[in-house]
Amino acid sequence: MKRGALLINTARGGLIDPAALTKALDDGLLAGAALDVLEGEELLKDERQILAQSLAQDKLRTLLLHHSLLNRDNVVITAHIAFNSREAVQRILEMTLENLPVCLHGRPQNLVVS
């Protein structure tokens, strides 16, 4: 990858190692990062709530690394709103309206089958 590239993650938080990301940003390997998901993001809370939790050392380390990313000028964290464009919301509304009548008649569409 080119030096100074931008990293964008909208997939899964666990794909990004926050320590490696911090090092890559510090070393200039990456110019910035945009993260819509973070590993352990359920732990990112008000500081008082964090202090009240009993966390394993690895979870605490990940939490602190993510917390340090929040304060960087070259990192944007969007907290699960990357999908939120006019077009995406319109598609969701249209799909919902299409699915309502068939669900009401006992023929649901777009089922996830395991």
Low-confidence stretches: none
- CATH hierarchy, class of the largest domain: Alpha Beta
Average pLDDT works out at 83
What would the principal axes of the Cα set say about the shape?
extended
What does this structure look like?
- Helix content is 42%, strand content 12%.
- It is built from four helices and three strands; from the N terminus they run βαβααβα.
- It has a three-stranded parallel β-sheet with strand order 1-2-3.
- The two termini are 37 Å apart.
- The radius of gyration is 19 Å and the shape is extended.
- The protein has two domains: 5-82, NAD(P)-binding Rossmann-like Domain (Rossmann fold); 84-114.
- Strand 1, helix 1 and strand 2 form a beta-alpha-beta unit.
- It is α/β, with parallel strands linked by helices and 114 residues long.
Summarize the helices and strands and which ones pair or pack:
Layout: E1 5-9, H1 18-26, E2 30-35, H2 47-52, H3 57-70, E3 75-77, H4 86-104
Parallel strand pairs: 1-2, 2-3
